[in-house]
Amino acid sequence: MNGLPAEVLLATDGSPDAALATRVASDLCSRAGSALRVVHVGQDISDYVRHFEAPEEYAFLFADEARELLEREVRSIERRGCAVAEARLELGDPVEEIVDLAEDLENGLIVVGSRGLGPVELLVLGSVAEGVVHRAPCPVLVVRGGEGCWPPSEIVVGDDGSEEAARAGDLAARIGGLFGSEATLVRGLPRPPRRLDDARTREDEHRSGQKEALRRRASELARSLARPPRNVARVGDAAALILDEAGASRGTLIAVGRRGAGAGDRGRGAVTMPLLGSVSTKVLRAAPGPVLVYPQDA
Predict the structure, then answer these.
(1) Model pTM?
(2) Which DSSP string corresponds to the chain?
């Protein structure tokens, strides 16, 4: 399937954010030929019913409402002309149930909605989207930004030289290729040291090497895109650089790896590169538009 996901797992809860994720997942599956699987995780109140000796009918009512919600979502997807390969109703913790189902995906991608309030301090920590991103065994596309966020007009890829960052870039480029998106490849460089001249020379050589590596990486991604990506290699915090390139546009898809590590930070005393492991969380919490996160062990 040319590097695109064979299966997409859409997690929905009937909210406006989930409705946007439904539109994105349907569109992506229709264009990529991916099988779409849908899950809704309803509230399991069986323990509550037993503990408070409430009528057992309460549990059945909650389950019926959850089933009706799932059926509405499936009908909505089918009206968009996209087939649903499987619809699952689960009861319990949303993060646990979604992650468990993702274990069975073949070359899979999870799509989930999120409000995305912008500044880091305004995002509610512990959200379902963030929990799924941190625990998922496959890449996760967190959808936010309203109707204007999809299809993405631009792709911004955070690159630190790690395998997971490379895979995030590959998948993002292939998604962008479906829509003719522009692309920008971003790499943060270490700050110049206040050291002796020979050390500064080695630092300059290292930074020059990183810029050349970024150019090679851009050439690789260009194969999936309508136009070659721009290269941005600057000194500074990686998350800030990525978010700065994305700007305030909700139609920009950001792609990063999770727990990424460049080769330069493994040796004692070596020049370190900004790690995208922590960057992925910062970007996820602050980005105004959709974010694609690719885990290290996928």
Answers:
(1) 0.84
(2) -TTS-SEEEEE--SSHHHHHHHHHHHHHHHHHTPEEEEEEEE---HHHHHHHT--THHHHHHHHHHHHHHHHHHHHHHHTT---SEEEEEES-HHHHHHHHHTT-SSEEEEEE----SSGGGSPTT-HHHHHHHH-SS-EEEE-S-GGGSS-SEEEEE--S-HHHHHHHHHHHHHHHHHT-EEEEEEEEPPPPS--HHHHHHHHHHHHHHHHHHHHHHHHHGGGSSSPPEEEEEES-HHHHHHHHHTT-TTEEEEEESS---GGGSSTTPPP---HHHHHHHHHHH-SS-EEEE-TT-
